[in-house]
Design goal:
Number of domains of chain B: 3
Order of helices and strands of chain A: EHEEEHEHEHHHH
Strand order of the largest sheet of chain A: 2-3-1-4-5-6
Shape of chain B: globular
Largest sheet of chain A: 6 strands, mixed
Radius of gyration of chain B: 25 Å
Number of strands of chain A: 6
CATH superfamily of the largest domain in chain B: Thiamin diphosphate (ThDP)-binding fold, Pyr/PP domains
Strand order of the largest sheet of chain B: 2-3-4-6-5-11
Structural class of chain B: alpha/beta
Number of helices of chain A: 7
Distance between the termini of chain B: 36 Å
CATH superfamily of chain A: Pyruvate-ferredoxin oxidoreductase, PFOR, domain III
Structural class of chain A: alpha/beta
Number of helices of chain B: 18
CATH class of chain A: Alpha Beta
Number of domains of chain A: 1
CATH class of the largest domain in chain B: Alpha Beta
Helix content of chain B: 25-40%
Helix content of chain A: 40-55%
CATH topology of the largest domain in chain B: Rossmann fold
Distance between the termini of chain A: 25 Å
CATH architecture of the largest domain in chain B: 3-Layer(aba) Sandwich
Radius of gyration of chain A: 15 Å
Largest sheet of chain B: 6 strands, mixed
Strand content of chain B: 15-25%
Oligomer: heterodimer
CATH topology of chain A: Pyruvate-ferredoxin Oxidoreductase, domain 3
Strand content of chain A: 15-25%
Chain lengths: 192, 533
């Protein structure tokens, strides 16, 4: 099994936690992993992406070649489209539809959604809304992880173990909220 | 040993800890910062009392490392590529003094300038200083090269340069730990003249360094990190260095590469291996991250009859980092199908965070300077450089660490009025003090604004060396006490802050203004361990 995943969003939206949890599940599943992250200036509200690669075989490159990503998991809709050149022609786009507007020239959201809808294989959902219903918009990233989980070919239990590991320090309440966010995201994606 | 999933930077840190490290010195700078941060978090480092406090700048770090090496201990120095410019005096001369305890100088380059002012290639410095250079291609090599590097450094009694680039620094993969080595005992250099560079001694040491070069060649020829793999198709031979080797192999994941490949991760370049591949192949493709160092060496000044392809002939772009797509093109392999970025997608540059104190400092400064027009503010390197962008458009320059104060001094001497500098607290500690001393001794008519947010924010909240001492430092350097002004950059204090700035603009002399409010990320975030205070 091999999955090349582009994770994208805006600095501060929590894509690195998604990457860490998928990476945890993959390594626990005895797979190889490479995960390239963005640190530094872009983390201040700029566009950020992570190239996450998991495979049963040795992985060479830390970066995914254009046209080779199996999945784009985006926590922001315009940021889903930015990495389209990486997505293979039959790859899946899993994206949040709630825009994060921190630039004056953010495009019309209707046309952004229309572009996403042109994708032959896509799952789009308002993850911010689902997260708010659970408790806080902060767990939006776990809603997105849940939504992407059916396409990862990783055992759900291992992903949940990853959530427990990443959020464990913050206490049982936070862990449970994030697990609930994951389940809701997964359910929303399955009902699409 | 259990596998660890580590960033390239963390692999360096863990490798050094496991190889008998006694101290790490450095100044934060993307993409190098996580090396020392990892050591600061490491329980093993804490238990062994490995030195891990940030230094004031890269030069002091390099010199402190030399001192630790003098005392016989293994030491790691870390910095970003432009930091090596700051450390260059100590670095270049360390090739003459050499090392007693092993020294690894880990420098992280930033091709494509993700978070930097230029994309200089530190291998050039390594060659300049005539040091061994190690360039890992993956996280495991980054780990393994610590032990190898310390042993190499102690074998030749010379520092070793470890060069990495952004993508390896900031990419995670699994790493298997090796044997744990104990630290060196404290021991003075055997030769009491070793660290003495009076000209008569330096001349002897330089000859010794020159005489070592054939030994270097031998070591690099036999290095476990340089490999030649033969191939049937000799129309092209491929030389791939460090990370470029991964991008090459990525393109042969599913089908074998038929071309001979020379992987180089230890310099000086392994001469015999290079001679072999160049004599057997009709042409050579050089894949190297950064500048065309090997390509230029192979081509030579008068040109080489061999057909050498790479960054100089356009086979690979002349600037910017490599990636598997660029390498695929250079190999002449077909590109994979995909769709372009839709036109509606707009750029999303980094910006000052909501609630950032710099925003209010810039608003006050802009109001104070309105009547003078644009172009009066020299700035520096940090989050506050983002004040150049709209809607602030508050500063005009960003050149190198500390250049705000010194450029303001120069411009004031040329007659520019007002001449204002904006510098962060950590940058002031790094390189601002000497510039301020110039301002005082030149009796410059400048306003120096030290935006104090209590941290090194851009690189991720490292402690700043001058926290709590800025006013005392300024006064000690000779700024008059009544012209050291402090204000709280908040929206409701805008008018009084404007007034303070205007008063200091109107004072003919050196003024220091300190807008002081902690970075919003400092509040509520536990400061990372290991720092000062």
């Amino acid at each position: 099994m091999k999955k090349d995943i582009i994770l994208s969003g805006v600095g501060g939206q929590g894509i690195l936690s998604i990457a860490t949890i998928i990476g945890y599940a993959a390594v626990e599943n005895e797979m190889f992993l490479k995960q390239a992250e963005v640190h530094g200036m872009s983390q201040r509200g700029g566009d950020v992406q992570s190239h996450l690669r998991i495979s049963d075989n040795k992985i060479y490159s830390d970066l995914i070649a254009e046209g080779k990503a199996d999945l784009i998991i985006a926590v922001e809709p315009m940021e889903a489209l930015r990495y389209l050149p990486y997505l293979c022609t039959d790859g899946w786009m899993i994206t949040n539809t709630k825009p994060y507007i921190n630039i004056p020239n953010y495009p019309d959201i209707e046309s952004v959604i229309a572009k996403i809808d042109e994708q032959p294989k896509k799952v789009s959902l308002d993850a911010d809304m689902i997260a708010k219903e659970i408790g806080t918009v902060k767990c939006m990233n776990m809603v997105m992880l849940g939504a992407a989980s059916p396409y990862l070919d990783l055992p759900v239990e291992k992903l949940k173990e990853g959530i427990r590991t990443v959020f464990g320090r913050k206490g049982e309440k936070i862990v449970n909220m994030n697990l609930e966010a994951f389940d809701s995201g997964r359910k929303a994606a399955e009902n699409k | 040993m259990k596998k660890l999933v580590l960033l390239g930077n963390e692999a360096i840190a863990q490798g050094a800890i496991d190889s008998g490290l006694s101290g790490a010195f450095g100044y934060p700078g993307t993409p190098s910062t996580e090396i020392i941060e990892y050591i600061q978090r490491s329980p093993e480092a804490e238990e062994r009392k490995i030195h891990k406090i940030w230094s004031a700048n890269e030069k002091t770090a390099m010199e402190e490392a030399l001192g630790m090496s003098y005392a016989g201990k293994r030491v790691l120095v870390t910095m970003k590529h432009v930091g090596l410019n700051v450390a260059a005096d100590a670095f270049m001369n360390s090739a003459l003094t050499g090392a007693n305890g092993g020294i690894i100088v880990a420098v992280a380059d930033d091709p494509s300038m993700h978070s930097s002012q230029n994309e200089q290639d530190s291998r050039v410095y390594g060659k300049f200083a005539m040091m061994n250079i190690l360039e890992p291609s993956n996280q495991q090599e980054a780990y393994d090269m610590q032990r190898y590097g310390f042993e190499l450094s102690e074998k030749f009694n010379l520092p070793v340069l470890l060069r990495i680039t952004t993508r390896l620094s900031h990419s995670r993969a699994d790493v298997v730990r090796g044997e744990l080595l104990s630290e060196n005992k404290l021991s003075m250099p055997k030769d009491p003249n070793q660290f003495m560079l009076l000209p008569a001694f330096a001349r002897v040491k330089y000859k010794k360094l020159l005489a070592l070069q054939p030994e270097y060649d031998k070591v690099s020829e036999e290095s476990p990190f340089n490999n030649f793999t033969d191939g049937k198709d000799k129309s092209v031979g491929i030389i791939a260095c460090g990370l470029a080797y991964n991008y090459l192999m990525e393109n042969y994941q599913d089908n074998e590469c038929l071309h001979p490949i020379l992987k180089i991760s230890h310099y000086p370049i392994p001469r015999k291996m290079v001679e072999k591949i160049t004599s057997e192949c009709d042409s050579i493709l050089v894949l190297e991250e950064g500048m065309p160092l090997i390509e230029e060496m192979l081509k030579g000044y008068l040109g080489n009859p061999l057909n050498i392809k790479g960054r100089l002939d356009g086979t690979v772009p002349r600037d910017g980092e490599l990636n598997p797509t660029i390498v695929r093109k250079a190999l002449g392999l077909g590109q994979f199908k995909s769709n372009p970025i839709p036109e509606i997608v707009e750029k999303r540059p980094p910006a000052l965070c909501r609630g950032c104190p710099h925003i209010d400092s810039y608003k006050a400064l802009n109001t104070s300077l309105e009547k003078y027009g644009k172009g009066h503010v020299f700035s520096d390197i940090g989050c506050y450089t983002l004040g150049f962008l709209p809607p602030y458009n508050a500063i005009s320059t960003c050149v190198d660490m500390g250049a705000s104060i010194t450029m303001a001094v120069g411009a004031a001497s040329a007659g520019l009025f007002p001449s204002v500098a904006v510098i962060g607290d950590s940058t002031f500690g790094h390189s601002g003090l000497t510039g301020l001393l110039d301002a005082v001794t030149h009796k410059s008519n400048v306003v120096i604004i030290i935006v104090d947010n209590d941290t090194t924010a851009m690189t991720g909240m490292q402690d700043s060396v001058v926290t709590g001492m800025i006013e005392d430092i300024c006064e000690g350097i000779g700024v008059e006490k009544e012209h050291i002004r402090i204000f709280n950059p908040l929206p409701n204090k805008h008018d009084e802050n404007v007034k303070i700035i205007e008063e200091e603009i109107n004072y003919n002399g050196v003024s220091v203004i300190i807008p002081r409010r902690p970075c919003i990320h400092v509040i509520g975030k536990n400061k990372k361990a290991g720092g000062k205070k």
